[in-house]
Amino acid sequence: MKKNIYKGTPIAPGISVGKSLLLEKQALPIFRLTLSEEQVDSEVRRLEEALEKTKSQLVVLKNQLTERLGEGHSYILEAQTLMLDDNLLRANTVDTIRREKVNAEWALGETASKLTGLFNSMENTLLRERVADVEDVIGRVQANLAQIDVHRATEITEDVIILAYQLTPSDIVEMHNSTIVGFLTEIGGKTSHTAIIARSLEMPAVTGMQELNEIGSGRTLIVDGFEGIVIVDPTLTQRREYENKKRYYEEHANQLISIKDKPSITKDGRKVVIQANIELPEDLDTAIRSGAQGIGIYRSEFLYLSNPDALPTEEEHFTVYRAVAERVYPHSAIIRTADLGAEKFTPVMGMHPEPNPALGLRGVRFCLRKREMFKTQLRALLRASTFGRLKIMFPMVSGLNELREAKAALEEAKEELRVLKVDFNENIAVGIMVEVPSAAMTADLLAAEVDFFSIGTNDLIQYLLAVDRNNDHLAYLYDPIHPSVIRMMKYVVDKAHEAGVKVGICGEMASDPQYLLILLGLGLDELSMNPVSVPLIKQMVRSLRYQDAREILEHCLTLSTAQDINEYLLEKTNQFFPSGFFASRGPVL
Amino acid sequence: MLTSDIEIINKKGLHARAASKLVQLATRYKSKVQLSRDGQISDGKSILGVLVLAAHQGSMLTITTDGDDEKDAMDAICELINRKFDEGE
């Protein structure tokens, strides 16, 4: 039998069955063909047919989008439809076909480079970004010339699994609420934004898949996001096996949910607060259902990314934060101020792509540069602080000066509200993400000027180890328990505790059962994770002793390599949690 | 031929939505419609051309209409711009 099982890296748990849909994002290869005199007319007709076909596809798409989201979101398609009739596109291409006696694809390619050149020469960044819309519409025409079916996520009506080279966060937001049940991508590591969002939407996702083109569109797939397994056109036996597996996971999940109202406390009485990380306001329900004791990080970027044409207004921010504060009460919610930058700019921010975005203008650096945008968010946060227990957290702080600068902006926002006689919580807690090594190494200095720390392991590890967390070739080096990481975390926790400051962790590491013994042993006060992982981690905390975890950590600190630590941890974890405790070998439930 | 100078007053300028409206309106008239800004001249019936003008709030445009219905075309276009493209900001 032909091989029908593929293996990738699981990045979001769950099991789904659906039809594959390959998103054709890469450009088609275009060849130059020279035509004879008599072929020219029919070539022009071929171009015109492709333009008309594209136009009718766009109209259909526009109607669907308008129906789903209202007029406000469909205008881009309107503009793209107009482009198809635009003489700069149409007449120029026809002219090239006739003048140079070349095929339509080539002529259109020439037009495309002229147009993108023209757009790229514009000084206005916002409009320069529109080049993507031009490229997109020309790509559709090219696909129609090549008679390739251009599927788009918004055209889908049955349960589908998206296959894409890479997905951007906004791609996934656009797909939210549609009939998508899973994702396969070629690139995007376990801690990429794609993975985080896929988990928050409770959709299985597997990355590191090299065979996407081989699988193609229209095949029935089973995606196992626990083990990273993809089965193409499954046999009846395979289907049954996975239906059973899925049921088993669901039952196990229900069993874990039953402990949701029990306290999160070790056998020897140490309380560890278990909180949820959320991305979208919709995630609040899942977080509350999971039994999380509050929100350890609300990533506020989606307010900015959901509308590329305008920055969110103070009211838009306020509405969301107020809802979070009210829903989570009596627990607290930590709102992280915008960590924009890197791949998360939208046209309206007027920023240019950077050669090294991870080390570039992002997080609080970007906010301090866009001070008015920053203060809009801060004022909204302050106003919402009277509706529950909100805390403010600044991302990417690299040292004391930046912290002071961010606090100064907060003070200005407070003063602006005081002038307007608007109520807010004067003593709102202010903390920072500890995710830049320079901040970690000056934890003692920073602790003196904040109310709390939250260790952002995703970035801290990538910066400390100098490993791009999205680079699959380097995945083997991205080791959350490299001795340097444990030492650094220990330093941060110890310095914070000396200053009487609480420390949490909000990276993906917190949801991995394998690392719980270490995190507990470090003395972290709060663990914040994806809502789906909350019940399992709580159950584990409840069956461990803090004293044991401390001893295990002490021993880990004497080991020299990540591999030694891993083996030791695995042995200890198995000892405390005999087989059967975990529903799978997958990292989280 | 009519010529008139006008300021773009809506907040977002001639972005995709506003440009679409302008082009759709201009296309309804037989007259030639030209827009120019800072020496760059574009066909008012070309969405790509209008976008390339990159006109933002406060930009000055020179509009030229030429043909049988040049007066109607000019009036309609100026009105659309002054109505801020009905964007209800």
Account of the protein in words:
The complex is a heterodimer of chains A (589) and B (89). Chain A contains 24 helices and 16 strands. Chain A is an alpha/beta fold. In chain A, strands 1-8-7-3-4-5-6-2 form an eight-stranded mixed β-sheet. The longest helix of chain A has 30 residues, at 40-69. Chain B is α+β, with helices and mostly antiparallel strands and 89 residues long. In chain B, strands 1-4-2-3 form a four-stranded antiparallel β-sheet. In chain B, a hairpin with a 2-residue loop joins strand 2 (32-37) and strand 3. Classes of the chains: A alpha/beta (589), B alpha+beta (89). The interface between A and B is medium-sized, with 23 and 18 residues.
How does the overall form of chain B come out from the CA principal axes? globular
CATH fold call of chain B = Histidine-containing Protein, Chain: A
User: Can you tell me the CATH architecture of chain B?
Assistant: 2-Layer Sandwich
> In oligomeric terms, what are we looking at?
heterodimer
- Supply the helix-strand structural class of chain B: alpha+beta
Low-confidence runs of chain A (pLDDT<50, min 5 residues)? Answer: 583-589
Itemize the secondary structure elements and their pairings.
The complex is a heterodimer of chains A (589) and B (89).
Chain A: E1 5-7, E2 9-12, E3 15-22, H1 40-69, H2 75-85, H3 90-100, H4 104-120, H5 125-128, H6 131-145, E4 160-164, H7 169-175, E5 180-185, H8 193-200, E6 205-207, H9 212-215, E7 220-224, E8 229-232, H10 236-257, E9 273-278, H11 283-289, E10 295-299, H12 301-305, H13 314-328, E11 332-336, H14 363-369, H15 371-384, E12 389-394, H16 400-419, E13 429-434, H17 437-441, H18 443-447, E14 452-455, H19 457-465, H20 483-498, E15 502-505, H21 516-522, E16 526-529, H22 534-542, H23 546-556, H24 562-576
Parallel strand pairs in A: 3-4, 4-5, 5-6, 9-10, 9-16, 10-11, 11-12, 12-13, 13-14, 14-15, 15-16
Antiparallel strand pairs in A: 1-8, 2-6, 3-7, 7-8
Chain B: E1 2-7, H1 16-27, E2 32-37, E3 40-43, H2 47-52, E4 60-66, H3 70-82
Antiparallel strand pairs in B: 1-4, 2-3, 2-4
Helix pairs in contact in B: 1-3
